[in-house]
Amino acid sequence: VKREGAGQVALVGVPNAGKSQLLAALTNAEPEVADYPFTTQRPQAGMVAFENVQIQMVDLPPLTEEHTEPWAFNIMRNADALVLILDLSQDPLAELETIIKVLGEQRITLQGEGGGEIEPGTFPKRSLVIGNKGDLAGTKENFAILKELYGERFSMIMVSAKEGLNLEKLREKLYTLLDVLRVYPKRPGHEPDLSAPVILKRGSTVLDLAQEIHKDFVSKLRYARIWGSGKFDGQRVQRDYPLQDGDIIELHI
């Protein structure tokens, strides 16, 4: 699946966890949604809007210990992050442990938003746990158990794709999961286009922005002026200045 937008997140879950329903609720995609398992047989992508960015969400066939489509693991390995969807009305703890086990056998290791140690030969993936069907009876108790046992390892949110519960909060969590930032380049004497940010990995510098805009800027860049995270608006900064989400940058070559 060709990556689009600010980043790509892959939906991972056991049969009937509600992956396709969540994709339909958050994006412009129209996946087949049914109450029987194994509805999704091929990857389906849609774009999740969060403020002025778009995040690509890819729905995959269900994961089981008995069989998972081999190509689905390749999409997981190439995705920027994974979203683990659990059915809170069933046994979400067992579902999460199944996901961890099956992905571990494929050398895909799950990490929280803070990252973690990377084992050689593995594919570490930042992961968000979503407890779905939070509108049903008994689901709050199941979610509380999940948080008690895995809350320190993973960021978690309870939603209902069917009823729209917490979907706006989920959009923000998806953006945070990608570990990126938005910056707005501007030409001297002009206003920035705040509807079209440049997306960079968190920790990027002024030089990284210059590289993203045009490779010739890297050698010609003398300095930049910044509005946002600087000590004052229009502060002059050097090429190695670390950028923050929302910064406006004026490059001088």
Overall description:
With 253 residues, this protein is of the alpha/beta class. Helix content is 27%, strand content 27%. The protein is built from seven helices and twelve strands. The chain has helices spanning 19-26, 70-78, 92-105, 139-150, 167-178, 206-213, 215-220; strands at 8-12, 44-50, 53-59, 81-87, 108-111, 123-132, 155-158, 180-186, 198-201, 223-227, 235-237, 248-252. The longest helix is centred in the middle third of the chain and has 14 residues, at 92-105. It is elongated, with a radius of gyration of 20 Å. It starts with 7 loop residues before the first strand and ends with a strand.
Q: Helix and strand layout, with pairings?
A:
Layout (H helix, E strand, L loop, with lengths): L7 E5 L6 H8 L17 E7 L2 E7 L10 H9 L2 E7 L4 H14 L2 E4 L11 E10 L6 H12 L4 E4 L8 H12 L1 E7 L11 E4 L4 H8 L1 H6 L2 E5 L7 E3 L10 E5 L1
Parallel strand pairs: 1-3, 1-4, 4-6, 5-6, 6-7, 8-12
Antiparallel strand pairs: 2-3, 8-9, 10-11, 10-12
Helix content percent band: 25-40%
Strand content: 25-35%
Q: How many strand segments?
A: 12
Main sheet characteristics: 7 strands, mixed
Low-confidence stretches: none
* Mean pLDDT figure: 94
Structural class, by secondary structure, is alpha/beta
* Pattern of helices and strands: EHEEHEHEEHEHEEHHEEE
Please report the distance between the alpha carbons of the first and last residues: 37 Å
Number of helices: 7
